[in-house]
Amino acid sequence: MEKMTVIVPCFNEEEALPIYFKEMCRVMGKMKDVETELLFVDDGSRDKTLAIMRDLHAMDVRCRYISFSRNFGKEAAIYAGLQNAGGDYVAIMDVDLQDPPSLLPKMYRILKEEGYDSVATKRSTRTGEPKIRSFLSESFYKFINKISKTEIVNGARDYRLMKRKMVDAVLDMSEYNRFSKGIFEWVGFRTKWLEFENAERSAGETKWSLWKLFSYSIEGITGFSVVPLSLASVMGVLFCLLSFLMIGVIIARTLLFGDPVAGWPSLVCIIFMVSGVQLLCTGIVGQYLSKTYLETKKRPIYILKDSSEDERSISNAKQRIWSESGLDQSA
Ligand code: UDP
Ligand code: MG
User: Fold this and answer.
1) Which of 75, 128, 202, 219 is surrounded by the most beta carbons within 10 Å?
2) Spatial CA neighbour of 68 closest among 11, 13, 136
3) pLDDT at residue number 10
C-alpha cells in the first residue's frame, strides 16, 4: 500500500495538539487506500508539547516525532519534516486546524486521479485577521509579484500535499534563508490550487508578530528577487539627471538676475534627501549581503535533540541487553 506522511510543525502547542490528533484520527479513518503517518516536528517548544508527542507516539504507532534543540522557526521545521518523511505522498499541515484536515482525502484523490504533482491551498478570505495585517500582507504580495519572476500566490498557505519527486526537488534546495512559498513555486511541477475559508485557531495563539511577518517578507524579497539591488543604480541615474537640470536652471538664473546669497534652507533639504536615498541604497545592499553572509557559513538549518526513532532504538537496545544477559525484564 502507498504511504503518506503528514508533517505537523509545532511550537508551544500543548493546547492545540490533542484537538488536532483527534480530528486527524477521524480523517485518517476515512482514507483506507493509503497508509498515513503523522510526523510531528517540535520546534523547540517550552511547554508540554514534546511530552504530548511522546505520549501520542507511545499510544499510536502512526505518530512519530522529531524535536529541535531550540526554536529554529517554521521554515526549518518544514525542511526537517521533509527530510524525515518516508511517504510516497507528503503533506504539510498546521496543528491549529486553520488548515482543515478534512480537505486531505480530496487532495489525495486529486493527485491519484488527475495527474497533478501537488495540491496547494489558499484562503479565499482573510476574515478574523486584523485589518492592518491584511493590508500589509496584500501590499507585500503586490510588491513581490511585481519584482519577482517566481509567482508568490496571495493568500497561499503552507498546507499542501506533494508527490515524492516534488519533495525531493524541494529538499535539493538546501538554502539557509528559506521562504517556502517561493521554493514550492520555483521547483515547478503541476500544482492544483484549492480554496477554503479562513478559520479561527482551534486553541492557543498565533506565533507570528507583525515584526516576525516583516522579516519573513524581507526573506521572500531577497530570496526571490534582485530588483531592489538595481533600484540603487536607477535612483543614481535619476538624481544625476535632476542635478544637471538644476545646474542649468541656476546658471540661467544667475546670468539673468545676478547672484544674491540665498537658498540655504533648500540646500539643506536637498542634502538630507540625497543622503537619505544613499543610506537606503546601502541598506538594500546590506540586506543582500547579510543573507549571502549567512548562506556562506553553511550552518545547519536545524539541530535535532530527540526523536521517536531514538526512543525506539534505546528501548530496543535495552531489550537486547536484557535478553542477552538472560534475565527477564520483569525480574
Ligand atoms: N510554528 C513553528 N515554529 C515557529 C512558529 C510557528 O513550528 O517558530 C508552527 C505553529 O506551531 C503552527 C504553524 O507553525 O503549527 C503556524 O503557526 P501560527 O498558527 O502561529 O501562524 P498563523 O496561522 O497565525 O500564520
Ligand atoms: Mg495558525
Assistant:
1) 75
2) 11
3) 94
Distance 290 CA to ligand 2 centre (A): 29
CA of 58 to the centre of ligand 1 (A): 25
DSSP 162: E
- Considering only residues 40 and 281, tell me which one the structure prediction assigns the higher pLDDT: 40
pLDDT at 331 over 50: no
Nearest CA to ligand 1 atom 23: 206
Superfamily of domain 3-207+301-308: Spore Coat Polysaccharide Biosynthesis Protein SpsA; Chain A (3.90.550.10)
Rg (alpha carbons) of the chain, rounded to whole number: 27
Q: Is the CB of 10 under 6 A from ligand 1?
A: yes
For residue 109, what is its C-alpha cell? 484523490
Distance CA 182, CA 153 (A): 9
pLDDT digits (tens, 9 = 90+) for 28-70: 988 888 999 999 999 999 999 999 999 999 888 899 999 999 9
| Nearest atom (ligand 1) to Cα of 41 | 7
Strand-pairing partners, residue 255, are: none
The mean pLDDT value for 69-78 works out to 93
Amino acid code (one letter) for 52: I
User: What span, in angstroms and rounded, lies between the C-alpha atoms of 198 and 269?
Assistant: 47
Mutate to test the pocket of ligand 1, among 48, 68, 96 (most ligand atoms within 8 A of CB): 96
